[in-house]
Write a structure and sequence with these properties.
heterodimer, A: 100 residues, mainly alpha, Helix Hairpins, 77% helix, B: 200 residues, Four Helix Bundle (Hemerythrin (Met), subunit A), extended
Chain lengths: 100, 200
């Protein structure tokens, strides 16, 4: 069977790619997608550990992470739409002023 | 052996899709590659004995959330952004810090996780949807209900945030309606006595 460390390694690589996306990309929507990628990496580690310990709690926690991610995406995309209406851009380099 | 082949196939697809998302110029392609990543991770969940989580991944992530992403990308027309670089030192610094994080994580996994630990599916039924449902509605009932409140708050927040700019127009409309109602109400009062006389 597959060792636990392989799944953890895959999770680490996916988290790393998400961090790289947040650091390098300037499009707010792609930064958001990279956040989702990091959520996904954490979920993968949770599910792998749930199987390793034969415990249901890991999978339940993944369920809650998914719902929180859904709420976060709804609010975040609404924020992006609101920012786009005032700034006419979603490039994060141009969002450097606090007041409108 | 077949489990290893399964794992490496879908792990390669997941990592490849994530890398493609990272470097795609077009946000639509990035969203589609992220869907590929989510689907392959859902297959990995299946192999980890988590059918409920795998299907929730496909329906909630690849279905609902990514459709929302695509909808917003197309709504804003923000597929491509003009290149701009205001902080020249930020990109190399970000790459270095991200690689530091990766090295740290790999170090932790290689030296702290027992490398002989293998994952094997238990003989008895594990994490069936029925089991997860009963756990959600007994042990985790309170967090589950709090989640519903959280989703409600998110819905209200999204509506308020996206409708805020229409406030002036809506106020004008409301004042028009109230004026119209105010002018019409006396007419109704005048009409009713005549109607009453006719009835009498």
């Amino acid at each position: 069977m597959v060792p636990l460390s392989y799944y953890l390694m895959l999770s680490a690589v996916m988290f790393f790619l998400g961090v790289l996306g947040v650091m390098l990309r300037r499009n707010a929507i792609i930064i958001f997608m990279s956040l989702e990628l990091m959520f996904n990496a954490a979920n993968l580690a949770f599910v792998a550990f749930a199987l390793y310990y034969h415990s249901l709690s890991g999978q339940i926690f993944v369920f809650f992470v998914m719902t929180v991610a859904a709420a976060e995406v709804a609010v975040g995309l609404a924020l992006i739409v609101a920012i786009f209406r005032t700034k006419h851009s979603i490039n994060v380099d141009q969002l450097s002023s606090l007041k409108g | 052996m077949s489990a290893l082949i399964f794992f490496f196939t879908f792990a390669l697809i997941a990592v490849g899709a994530a890398v493609g998302m990272l470097f795609s110029r077009n946000a639509i392609y990035a969203a589609l590659l992220l869907i590929v990543n989510f689907a392959s991770v859902a297959f990995l969940y299946l192999s980890l004995g988590a059918p409920f989580i795998a299907l929730a991944q496909v329906t909630v992530y690849a279905g609902a959330i990514m459709v929302l992403f695509l909808f917003v990308i197309m709504l804003l027309g923000a597929e491509r952004l003009p290149p701009s670089q205001e902080l020249p030192w930020q990109r190399p610094l970000g790459i270095v810090l991200a690689f530091l994080l990766l090295i740290e994580a790999v170090y932790g996994i290689v030296f702290r996780v027992n490398s002989a630990a293998t994952l094997s599916l238990p003989v008895v039924e594990f994490a069936t949807p029925a089991e997860i449902g009963s756990a959600l509605f007994s042990t985790y009932l309170l967090p589950f209900e709090i989640t519903s409140v959280l989703l409600l708050v998110a819905v209200v927040g999204a509506i308020v945030l996206t409708r805020a700019e229409g406030g002036a127009r809506r106020r004008a409309l409301v004042s028009q309606i109230t004026q119209a109602v105010a002018t019409e109400v006396p007419e109704h009062k005048a009409e009713t006595p005549e109607e009453e006389k006719e009835l009498v």
